[in-house]
């Protein structure tokens, strides 16, 4: 059900997500280059369906949605008028793990854009694989640090097979627009225990956690957009900070599941070396793996990556010893 505490802009977003789910809508988010290539094809907006409207983000005819929902979405600026009496959405929805996730429209050029794409699917698979191998306890405390649209925390909570979930789920992000999307996504996932907190990492988040999940930005972005820019020499700074700050926030036997990218230079993964030494020196166990050896290859054309061999998508598990 739609949260009774939702503000009008949140209410409209929840309403749209729930309506799309009931209509059987499904869409798989793709890379920006693939999305751009699909949009370059000839398309008559009069023939647009729900996937065109809320997946590919094409203009669509007004009759595609119920009149009252359309009015609410226009009033809250989730829809905007488009030429030839069409409409266009200011939000997209993508499918993952049986849920729908609201995220930013295409192209994601805004400084506060809310990311969702192929990295999200790899992140979710990494979480599922780790939690299937070592399940969470039923009353686990979970935080999705830098949550964006909230997929990490919500996917993790769904691995605990209780209805309703008995986990406490914190969705934390420095970006208020991300939290707006995450709140609607949590409500539509029926995750009543989820709380959204605006925070620069753990600054406004209290307590220890059984599980910390994170998929931070890991590229260098000339515009320093929050969802994309990781800082440091190759985009690794935020990921390093998450590892270091998480160590003091893990409960006994608690785990950090970090999905990020690492720039490989002359065959060397300097990020892996740095964070592994830091964690193991404090008595934590570390598992580190390459999930995809070559992502965002187009970034290597930029001067900032002139010395890089490749950018690898990696998964890191850091676990605190038991009490």
From TrEMBL:
Alphabetized GO MF terms: nucleic acid binding; protein-glutamine N-methyltransferase activity
SUPFAM superfamilies recorded: S-adenosyl-L-methionine-dependent methyltransferases
Domain Methyltransferase small: 138-264
Pfam families per UniProt: MTS (PF05175)
InterPro entries associated with the record: DNA_methylase_N6_adenine_CS, N5-glutamine_MTase, SAM-dependent_MTases_sf, Small_mtfrase_dom
Protein name according to UniProt: Methyltransferase small domain-containing protein
UniProt keyword Transferase present: yes
Keywords of the record: Methyltransferase, S-adenosyl-L-methionine, Transferase
CDD domains: AdoMet_MTases
PANTHER family membership: HEMK METHYLTRANSFERASE (PTHR18895), MTRF1L RELEASE FACTOR GLUTAMINE METHYLTRANSFERASE (PTHR18895:SF74)
Gene Ontology terms: biological process: methylation
PROSITE patterns per UniProt: N6_MTASE (PS00092)
């Amino acid at each position: 059900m739609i949260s009774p505490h939702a503000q009008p802009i949140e209410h409209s977003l929840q309403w749209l997500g729930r309506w799309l789910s009931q209509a059987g809508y499904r869409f798989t988010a793709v890379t920006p280059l693939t999305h751009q290539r699909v949009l370059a094809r000839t398309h008559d907006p009069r023939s647009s369906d729900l996937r065109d409207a809320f997946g590919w983000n094409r203009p669509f005819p007004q009759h595609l949605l119920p009149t009252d929902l359309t009015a609410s979405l226009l009033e809250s600026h989730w829809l905007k008028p488009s030429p030839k009496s069409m409409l266009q959405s200011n939000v997209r929805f993508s499918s993952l793990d049986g849920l729908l996730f609201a995220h930013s429209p295409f192209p994601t050029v805004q400084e506060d854009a809310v990311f969702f794409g192929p990295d999200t699917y790899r992140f979710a698979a990494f979480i599922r694989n780790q939690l299937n191998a070592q399940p969470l306890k039923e009353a686990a405390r979970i935080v999705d640090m830098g949550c964006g649209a909230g997929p990490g925390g919500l996917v993790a909570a769904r691995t605990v097979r209780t209805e309703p979930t008995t986990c406490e789920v914190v969705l934390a992000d420095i970006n208020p627009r991300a939290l707006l999307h995450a709140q609607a996504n949590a409500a539509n996932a029926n995750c009543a225990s989820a709380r959204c907190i605006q925070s620069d990492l753990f600054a406004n988040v209290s307590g220890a956690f059984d599980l910390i999940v994170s998929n931070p930005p890991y590229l260098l972005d000339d515009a320093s957009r929050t969802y994309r820019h990781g800082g440091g020499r190759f985009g690794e700074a935020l990921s390093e900070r998450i590892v270091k700050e998480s160590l003091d926030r893990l409960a006994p036997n608690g785990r950090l599941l970090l999905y990020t990218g690492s720039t490989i230079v002359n065959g060397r993964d300097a990020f892996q070396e740095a964070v592994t030494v830091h964690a193991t020196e404090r008595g934590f166990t570390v598992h580190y793996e390459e999930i995809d050896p070559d992502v965002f290859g187009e970034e290597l054309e930029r001067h900032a990556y002139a010395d890089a061999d490749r950018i690898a998508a990696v998964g890191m598990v850091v676990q605190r010893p038991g009490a």
